[in-house]
Batch of 4 targets.
Target 1
Amino acid sequence: MSIRLPASARREQLLDVALQVFARQGYHGASMNDVADAAGVTKPVVYQHFDSKRDLYLALLDSVGERLLTAIYTATAGATSGKHVTELGFQAYFRWVAHDHDAFLLLFGGGGKADDEFNDAVRKVTAQVAESIKPLIAADIDPEHQRTLAHALVGIAEGASRRLVDNGTDFDPDLLARQVSDMAWAGLRAVSRPPTAADSDPDSPRRTRRASTR
Amino acid sequence: MSIRLPASARREQLLDVALQVFARQGYHGASMNDVADAAGVTKPVVYQHFDSKRDLYLALLDSVGERLLTAIYTATAGATSGKHVTELGFQAYFRWVAHDHDAFLLLFGGGGKADDEFNDAVRKVTAQVAESIKPLIAADIDPEHQRTLAHALVGIAEGASRRLVDNGTDFDPDLLARQVSDMAWAGLRAVSRPPTAADSDPDSPRRTRRASTR
DNA sequence: CATAGAGGTGACCTCAGGGTAATCGTGGCG
DNA sequence: CGCCACGATTACCCTGAGGTCACCTCTATG
């Protein structure tokens, strides 16, 4: 038999272990037995703490999403300028990825289930991140356009992270944040300002900026 | 019994139908019976054309990835400037998403399986897109940094698309491409040029740019 | 019209895996 | 010391789904 643990500790351990297992093997690739084994315990124990596999997985998604969001919120709370917010935000994101590797895989690793409830949990996170980004975007453009750009920025973080995570190489999140936020901030500034001569392209004359995405 | 089709036509139909089914229900959520039913046929027919579920899914990933890549390659072939390439590239991507909705979901919708072979198929696509983007990035920066930015750009397209696809709203891919590529191109230009006074932030003094991500 | 072969089907096998019921063992408390 | 309650286990059920086999049916062709 395994070491006995008080219920609350066991529950925490199960969440920890399940995160690893699901991150590595995906939702379907991981059986409840796998989770139990990884925790050094048998299946019914898992069911004493979580009603179902879904339940366990949702609990994980929530807790993991929460961690990312608070990391970003607290990191950017003390920022003094748009550029500063951008860099600190990316920094928090990449630190989270570097530190909480499995959490990133769980949310964005693609091992999930095509399930409305699961999708919602993930989308809610990205949407909230995007929302926290929106203030950085020039207020004089169409809100729909703003949202598009905000989600594009979230995509930047995801795209840069995924490559490194998939690659398996360790990386310096702070350096990454500088590299990426430099680009992102420059891009953000540009959308609100009239183009300079250097930006224009002789082959595609400047068109008028329309108002809506739809 | 269903309408009889010649083998090649049936195979094409199965690929078509399977794309829809897998895109909507995910790899695990869709059974081979579902695919067969959707094609108006029974399971053994599917197995006459594909050795296994994996086989079918991989065939789909390949064909779908191929479509995206050629769309981008042909679209950007005639471009005359970096900015132009950027816009045409995004345009091709977003048009692909708008037109081949299910293909996007299959590759990036997260309904996949946490499987090395599947991941490789998807990663190969994003890596190739990133590779085609790399020439746009200032050549005077570290190659690893270049790759990071290239993948970040791919992330932009993915992030912007995912929101719209998940949302279910139709969108104008060309408008989207303009909005996004404006930002992206401005960002790309900035990383190669020394920062202007307007870009600097009094609270975070300019640091020296280091060379590597590792 | 007979027949070969391609296209298609119903029924089945097998097994992984989610979930449960009954039981066991042990540590703390009266 | 005895016993209760909580933590854990063994053994099981049962459904869903991947995959296969033997058989059927239609159509083109000589």
Target 2
Amino acid sequence: MSENDKLKKRAAEILKRLEKEYPAAKCHLEFRNPFELLVSTILSAQCTDARVNMIMTPLYENKYKSPDDILADGLENFRENIKSCNFFNNKAKSVLAICNILKKDYNGKVPDSLEELTKLPGIGRKSANVILGNCFGKKDVIIVDTHFKRVTGRLGLTDNDEPEKIEADLKKLIPPAKQYVFSHVIGDHGRYVCGARKPKCGVCVLNDVCPSDSLKK
DNA sequence: CTCCCGATAT
DNA sequence: ATATCAGGAG
């Protein structure tokens, strides 16, 4: 068996166990349509989903129902509303710029291709893949966020540090139809067990297939 | 590579 | 006190 086949087999075993562990794994951001997820995804950078939801869910219901609503409210007001998220200045500018682009080029709708999404200011590959997977039903998306990078690295599924290379590495290991699910169960595992500071190796269902012995003590 | 630049857990 | 939170742009 080749080295890549061994890795593939281990990735399949990891996916199997995590699917059992997190049967309801999904996006933790609250949204009712692609526009809401687009905005919340920008705000979620270096900030917890719980905080984004706390701020934005009431605003979507009462105030920001469309790009026009955010544009009408203006940059200053929007920035004040999202102040408790991180990087509020850049995020507010990105959101307002995107609202203008959606209005001008997309008839107010969110585009559904990686190329178009990543052209939008504040939307990189991670955010684009979140939208494609959660709003447009795309299954062959590997979503590389900070959790994904940490957990797949510890599991020895990639040697790379660069998000785009990690994405490519895992696309070779996980079948296309399973990539969306894999992204979410890895995310949940990173959040609940394989945390950045004190990974709970004692209760980890992947303990025996994880090569990161230094973490286990 | 740096900057962005708030809230929370440890 | 500090590392980290579902990153992206210049």
Target 3
Amino acid sequence: MIAAFPDEIDLKKIAESGQIFSCGQMEEPDHFWFLSAGNLLTARQIDPQHIEAFCESGIWDSFWSAFFDAERDYRPLRQVMREKGGISAAAAQEGAGLRVLRQDPWEMLISFIVSQRKSIPAIRTCLAKLSDFGPIVPGAVCAGLPGLRRLPSPDRLLSLTSQQLLACGTGYRAAYLHDAALKVAGGKLNLAAAGKLDDEALQAELMNVKGVGVKVADCVMLFAYGRTDRVPADVWIRRVKERCPDAFTGIAAPGLAQQYLFFYARRHGRDGSFVQ
DNA sequence: CTCCAGGTGATGG
DNA sequence: CCATCACATGGA
């Protein structure tokens, strides 16, 4: 089916945006795959406003539409960022087509626990190894992605030995993952019910997990619970704020602006045009 | 080899 | 409250 967006969508930028790690480019040009909560989608970029989603309209409407935040018009935000000038304007310009995805709370929790002090390629590698312990994804072979698995459930994660966990490259985060699995599997952290809490209470719930600080909690709140006023402050966003302290002032949904700025800062951090 | 990565918890002031 | 420091490991 063809999906039309109110403004723009860019599958390639989204796949590279650092908010999702279970995704990739396919062999055919302009084709990408995304895996979330056990659902697998392959899609083709048609033009800046349309993609061809290789799924039935039922699952698009019930899952992927919300996943891609497909009802939101990002143009007003990008206009405000353009008016700010500087980094904000450049980020809004260059990031056109980025969207903040709505993903699974458990998958975001363990993904961003793993993410700390790792590069994005290293995060992907580690999560892929962890996923070797998870269930096979239905339709993966048909989509040309044989062997694709999703991340293990809390119960499955608990059944792994620390050696197995360490062999995935989790390092010192292995104990954090174990604690997250323990709390979710044991019902001490109910991720579905947590969605009804206000921001402050939700953050406190998430931070009860060992290895979850403000930054990881913000990532889960933004990428899983759609709390668009949260701004995960990693090294790149701190550099943006240092150079442009008012980058987020007066912005209605700063979490969305954060995604453009993160994308821009990371892309230009190494080529001399941003840092220093 | 060195340096850094979508940070956090423990410790000491 | 804030400033350091260790932490495991892959990727550049």
Target 4
Amino acid sequence: MPGFQKSDTLEILLYAAEELFAKQGFDGTTLRDITGLAGVNLAAAHYHLGNKEALYIKVFTRRLQPINESRLARLARAEQEANISLVGMEQLIEIMARPLFELAADTQHGGQYFARILGRCLVEPLPFMEAIITAELQPVMARFGQALRRHSPQLAPEEYLWRFSFVIGAMHHSLATLHGMKVRTHGICRDHDAAAALQRFIPFAVATFTAPVKPEPVNNR
Amino acid sequence: MPGFQKSDTLEILLYAAEELFAKQGFDGTTLRDITGLAGVNLAAAHYHLGNKEALYIKVFTRRLQPINESRLARLARAEQEANISLVGMEQLIEIMARPLFELAADTQHGGQYFARILGRCLVEPLPFMEAIITAELQPVMARFGQALRRHSPQLAPEEYLWRFSFVIGAMHHSLATLHGMKVRTHGICRDHDAAAALQRFIPFAVATFTAPVKPEPVNNR
DNA sequence: GTCTATAGACGGATAGAC
DNA sequence: GTCTATCCGTCTATAGAC
């Protein structure tokens, strides 16, 4: 966490909450855990945030909104520069994924914890987060989904959506587990290595969308 | 849930726990939720299972162990039949993935709920589950990882591990979200459609491992 | 804005009758 | 094996002094 000066109670709370929510989940984290780590009084947390759900939402949107704005801005700029031709697939995927992987690599300012929260959010459905995800996350994903779609007109809609789902799944899984890569790979991959992850993720995603169609259904067994 | 006859209290409890743990997570589910859904007395649950963590572990291993045994048996048989040549990539991935996707499609006997639990387990780390995952899940994953590795000797170890991680991530994400595909795709894909998922997942995984290596690091922006 | 103190509900777990 | 009743700790949230 960066250095705080005056009365940044709210900021300190958000950083502590981010870390614990990422590690333990929403239901596994108590306000006492958070205020304890933050060194803030329990009642003060309620004063600043109202309740636990509002705290979680604040942790979520505080990071996601600026990232989404910058991603959409970069996308719009790239499309403008490409004029009537298409923005390259590599570039589309890079614009979509880089800010997230870089966040996952940020071990100094808590970005890594937000990346883990984001990686979890599609898989552990918190009822009160449904509206937030629909409003903040889905439109941006859909925007990139549409842009990538133009590169894969040969794919049937269902085929394309499955592949897009695999790519998004791989990305969220990576965001949630970029810490811990070292242990899982017995030291071969490093933890929080955004550059390595991105360098592999971009061609991986391109290969997913450009792979030929398997016409006949699976016939094994 | 299937029809129970005599005093299948334990079984009823496991089905109810499976459903609620999948939907709400471990910390988000109370024993009272579970016994309420199961129609079983709270004290009876403790009598049969000891405590909440033991219940979760039981829910987890009860499904996973037989699946892993059958997957390893099929793999061993396929390797024997292939003699000194390699088992095909398609077949390897099919052996690894099919039982899980079929479970995710089982809306009659609760298999779908276990698939969601499995899909969550890599991304939401429960401290008491670490040992179980290391003992029950990792060895099987490693076994398939090794078998697939022989098809990709051209990939550097790090490169291979990243791709394997993407494939596993896509699979777990799919398992956790195979319900809800219809809403997310605006009706184009169906829910719990194991056949469709598998038909796309297998070539997707093959394409991931056979994609050419991008030599130079990403240079965009 | 920050604190102490506490309300009020709910959590997992158990004792002991049947 | 199953039940009622209950213990006891912890939770979120708030009231009210400073």
